[in-house]
Write a structure and sequence with these properties.
Blueprint (H helix, E strand, L loop, with lengths): L4 E5 L2 E4 L3 E6 L6 H6 L3 E7 L8 H11 L2 E6 L5 H20 L12 H21 L7
Length: 138
């Protein structure tokens, strides 16, 4: 039997056997179908016991999410669509957290930016000067 895998990124692939699924009845409108069908999908992924990615990536995920990551989906009337939606959201959440932000390099304002700032301050000062009451000499 082929083992299915969830490709989050090129170097982060989750074996689907690591995912625990729980299905229950969905809340909200829908009448008898919603009350009787177990369409709500909940996927639970144990980050600590996973083999996906590197140890460093998993420790970053544990620091952000905790030891388990749980996603619930009940937007659709179909269990399969909710299951697919839960997998998509799980993948997106992990992918978003794995992005390493590049540090900002300090830079100084350009000459034109300094000139524009000085001009706007001068303009604002003139505007405020015009608001004052005229002196008795005028």
């Amino acid at each position: 039997m082929a083992v299915l895998k969830l490709h989050v990124t090129d170097d982060f692939i989750i074996d689907t056997r690591e995912l625990e699924w729980l299905f229950s009845t969905s809340s909200g409108p829908g009448g008898q179908h919603a009350n009787r069908s177990q369409t709500r999908a909940e996927v639970r992924w144990d980050i600590t016991n996973s083999t996906a990615g590197s140890d460093e990536q998993r420790s970053d995920l544990i620091q952000h999410f905790g030891t388990f990551l749980i996603i619930r989906a009940d937007e659709h009337r179909s269990q399969k669509r909710n299951k697919d939606d839960a997998l998509r959201r799980l993948s997106a959440k992990i992918r978003q957290e794995l992005i390493v932000a590049t540090p900002r390099r300090r830079s100084s304002p350009t000459r034109s930016a300094r000139r524009k700032r000085a001009d706007s301050k001068t303009q604002r000062g003139r505007l405020k000067q015009q608001r004052q009451r005229p002196s008795m000499d005028d």
